[in-house]
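Record type: ASSEMBLY
Status: queued
Input:
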Amino acid sequence: MGIFSFFSKEKKETLDKGLSKTKENVFSKITRAVAGKSKVDDEVLDNLEEVLITSDVGVDTTLKIISRIEKRVAKDKYVTTQELTALLREEIAALLTENNTDDAEMFSLPEDKKPYVIMVVGVNGVGKTTTIGKLAYQFKKAGKNVYLGAADTFRAAAVEQLVIWSERVGVPIVKQKMGSDPASVAFDTLSSAKVNGADVVIIDTAGRLHNKINLMNELTKIKNVMKKVVPDAPHEILLVLDGSTGQNAFEQAKQFTAATEVNALAVTKLDGTAKGGVVIGISDHFRIPVKYIGLGEGIEDLQVFNKKEFVNSLFGE
Ligand SMILES: Nc1nc2c(ncn2[C@@H]2O[C@H](COP(=O)(O)OP(=O)(O)OP(=O)(O)O)[C@@H](O)[C@H]2O)c(=O)[nH]1
Ligand SMILES: [Mg+2]
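Status: finished
Output:
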């Protein structure tokens, strides 16, 4: 069995459907970039560079991809423009899989950390709460005992929204009233989770902290309080980024990774956007792995990010 055999037909369909706008966007641009050309030459490569940059891949990653393709073209002498997408697919896949992070095969948790504590961060509206709901669903489906903590106490609706997800998924939630101390909610959640033998705890946090110092202080406080209950918590600081904002997501990743020790990324809302290329840039640029991608608002619309499947879906197999 191949290592990608876990990638089911349904998952592939969700991915293909989710990425369809990005795919259309990239292909229509490539078609224009090679119009009237039969062979990949400098002009085609220049156009291709522009295609990738305007498809939100990011400048650095684009330059890497172009230089790889240049080498291939120089080596193979004559590359037809028809072969270009296959070449792109191969070189992007190779570039991404050369990163030192391996793809996780499925939603899984390390055995030796119990409860495994995930703190979810990101600016408002990116899809934190939704991603938590989807993650809780996947872990529960995998037979795990899940606890949610509503540490986004900034507004009443935030707590309510997580309560709704907890009911949909059928997992317990720990909350306090709006405006209460997020660190105190995190403490209560971890305490309950520990007493009740939870496997995983997912903590929602507020995105609406206006400056970096505030944000850092708040997150540090939550982390420190968690450690009183589970000394090595949080095990995962998951930064959620809205993929439909393109380069903005990239900027947010830069700022958050500077503010706190983010060690996993989730890129959401890849469905319905033509900016899905941003995942390629983010995955190449940050040493932090893109762990999950969001492909819709539904409970099943979260996938473990698989670089090869992602590139295959964008450029065809
Ligand atoms: N299409 C699509 N919509 C999504 C996805 N993930 C989240 N959303 C939608 O994005 C909106 C915001 O999501 P939330 O989960 O509330 O975002 P948040 O980061 O918790 O926002 P705040 O609590 O305000 O900070 C909601 O309408 C979600 O349904 C996704 O992968 N695809
Ligand atoms: Mg929220």
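Annotation: The longest strand covers residues 236-242.
Annotation: The pocket of guanosine-5'-triphosphate (ligand 1) is lined by residues 122, 124-130, 152, 158, 161, 207, 268-269, 271-272, 294-297, 301 (CB under 6 Å).
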